[in-house]
Amino acid sequence: MVAVVLQKLQYRLATAMVSAAGAAAYIGCHAEPREDTEMRTNVYSIEAQRRLMEERNLLRDRAKADAQRLRDEAIDGFISGADVFVRDAAQRAARAANRLAARLHQHARQRAAAQG
Question: Strand, helix or coil at 28?
Fold first, then answer.
């Protein structure tokens, strides 16, 4: 359970980092306008926009890979914890069955001795 919460927090952190990096790249992209003399508006270079998209894609891919890794780790942790729990329960059940068999055997001996 703790691993799942940790995974969610790390995923949120990764997505926040992607958003922050995207905003920084957006600001960087818009910090270098060139003047379009015909339209009298600022036009941003195609290269800056391409760089921005590449950075965003790279950050998103990293965040997805980190989220997948964290998910896999959480699942592995859960499975190993469940395996330990099942193994412990099986050992306790076997011990209880052995104790019950011993008690029944002792009870049978006591009844035989009392009758004999």
Answer: helix
